[in-house]
Amino acid sequence: KLSWVNMFIIVIVDPYFKIFKATEAGDNRLVYTSVIRKNTLHPSWGSFTITASELNNGDMQRKLTFQVWDWDKFSAHDLIGTFETTAHAILTGNTEYTVIN
Question: SS3 of 18, please?
Fold first, then answer.
C-alpha cells in the first residue's frame, strides 16, 4: 500500500545546453554545446566565448534556439526544454527566459 501523502520525488538533473543558429536555408545549425553541470536544479554555466561569425554570421537579429538537456550516463539524454532569442536581445539585457517543453 502506498501513502501518497507521505511520498515525494526529488529530481536532480545534470543539465547542459546547446545553441543552434538559424541558417539562410531555413534549418538550424549547432554552434555551441555547454559543459554539463552535475546534480543541480539551479545550474550556473558562467561565461564562454564564441565569435559573432560562429554564433550568428554577424547578424544580431538572427534567431538562436537554445535547447536545455539532462545528461544521462546510461540512457539517451532527455530534452528539458527550449527557448528562442537573438544575440541582440541577450546583449541588451534580456537574460531570463522560460524553457518550454
Answer: strand
Residue 83, C-alpha cell as written in the block: 527557448
Question: Looking at this protein, which amino acid is placed at residue 16?
Answer: Y
49 alpha carbon, distance to own chain's centre? 16
Report percent pLDDT > 90 for the chain: 67
Query: Which H or E run contains 52?
Result: helix 52-56
Mean pLDDT is highest, among 2-11, 28-37, 88-97, for 28-37
Q: In what order do the strands lie in the sheet with 64-70?
A: 28-33, 15-22, 64-70, 78-85
CA distances from 35 to 44, 59, 93 (A): 10, 25, 23
One-letter amino acid at 9 equals I
DSSP 5: G
Tens-place pLDDT, residues 50-96 = 999 999 999 999 999 999 999 999 999 999 999 999 999 999 987 78
Please give the grid coordinates belonging to residue 71: 545528461
